[in-house]
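task queued by scheduler; priority normal; single chain, no ligands, no partner chains; default sampling; output format set to structure tokens
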Amino acid sequence: MKSFLGVGTTLYGRREVWPDGSYIATAWKIFLLLPIIPLASYRVKRGETKATLRSLFIIGARTSYSMLPAVLNTKQITNTYLVGWGTPVLIFIFYVVRPDLFMFIPLAFVVFIVVFTVKSLFSFK
């Protein structure tokens, strides 16, 4: 999965978590971090994390993941669309109805990012 400045492909969601820690996530075509088209669902299992030395002063970590194809998870796709597109639509409606309160939009955008991130990381059934 690769994206640059919010455009490309990424995984969103975390459903049907198994005892081994694996879960279902859906690959999406995204534009400005908004989900456009669901491509496929995968059972994702976290592998091992290794420390890496990139240069003399930069130390990082690299985690491997295994992804096995799974059936498209319609509940996850629906939730991702609702959260991903619901917030910008509500912000637009809010702007049309109360443009005098539009100064609060930067705060709403931060809330959108936090909610979308939390929603995509955890499974809400």
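post-processing summary
- The chain has one domain: 3-121.
- The CA atoms of residues 87 and 112 lie 6 Å apart.
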